[in-house]
Specification:
The chain is α+β, with helices and mostly antiparallel strands. It has one domain: Rossmann fold (3-Layer(aba) Sandwich). The chain is built from four helices and two strands, in the order H-E-H-E-H-H.
Length: 81
Amino acid sequence: LRRSRPYFNEVASNLERITHLPLLLTWGDADPALTMESFGRRFQKVFPNHQAVILQGVGHYIQEEAPDQVVEAIRNWWSAQ
């Protein structure tokens, strides 16, 4: 993780360029690594033009654990854009 710090610092320093863009935030409520409370809320603050879809009982790998729900969330979000 320490080696990735420069990368994440670079990403953070350029966020203002994209914060106005629409964002679909999909999150598993059972993610043990990146909880919505500690990490997801940051996304919500940084990207005011977001839609959050919280997948119940889903962990860190949402696309593998709940592929149909992820596809549905993307399709619904995309059609509303």
